[in-house]
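Example record

One chain of 361 residues, shown exactly as stored in the release files.
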Amino acid sequence: MVGTMALLHALSRTTRTARTARTALTVRTAPASPRPADGLPADDEVLLDAPDERLAPVLVAAGLGDHRPAAALLAATRADGAWEERDLYVTRLAAFARPRGEWFAQWCALAPDDPDVLLLRAELAVTAHWESPARVELLRGAAALVAAATGGDPRDPVPWRVALDHARGADADPAEFERLWGEAVRRSRHHYGCHATALAYLAALRHGSHGECFDFAETAAQDAPPDSLVQALPLRAAFAWLTDGGRSAIPSERLHAAADRAIALSSRYAPADPWPAEVRNLLACVLAALGRRPEALGQLRLTGPYATSFPWDRFPGDPLGRFLDLRRGVARETGARGAVRPAGPVLPRSERAGRMPALDH
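Predicted structure tokens for this chain:
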């Protein structure tokens, strides 16, 4: 209990709420529509996890066995202190290296102590074991790789995000997680990946008590700059509550405020910009769950052709198919002038809690 409270104190300031949200469980997947609504790309134009203009040529080179563009890209993010971009590129490069690892093996052989090599090795070790039934044991066996990554560039918060993921997967106790969290935020106070991992750890630690997760997410967002991705952290808390079946009482105003904050963040980026695509995908999903279909359609238009694995990989089936299902359903149930037709919100089924609830206003 002491460890849990110490972690919560480190991650959030306590707030109190007294109102409860009302939920309606009418959720369904919409039937396919032959054409998308005005302002949406055609289905066959939508891309899943498309790389940006910096990463795309790096992946092409890696596919041809050349590691040098990847090394140059990660070195540049480290030199520039571009930690959010670095985290994204590390995640994508590790995913690419998993089935096509020759280029990375060559890089490891040539520069085994390079901080970027150490970071990619740690990310690969954590993600490779995440879905295994023996995850805890396997991840504990990868501790040395994670420790080596955190000993690379002393300014870099990304290895500490990997360490936080490792600790979460290895069932680390709250005191150890709090120690790693302190190292992470000392390097980058508003790093989104570290905050998202801490939120996931806190949600698991509290076993569905989502109020403290909202406390943490809202406090972090209030402290972050307006253009920081941490502004979307309350939206992730709302999504976690919705996919958990709404088992704890969260005021509807709190959920809508999370969506409003994310809408403000989305408005800071150009339409069809791949950088905020994950936030916009998540925002469209949550807005649909809240019954705010015209605004969900607006975010889908801003997203353009960029679908992202998250949040759609949290549901059964193909993530791209789930994105297109929601898009068709929202477009079908939203009139040409943005008026909502009298129907329930359109969302896929959740793997963990049956159906995602929608709020009754």
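Notes: The domain at 54-205 is CATH 1.25.40 (Serine Threonine Protein Phosphatase 5, Tetratricopeptide repeat).
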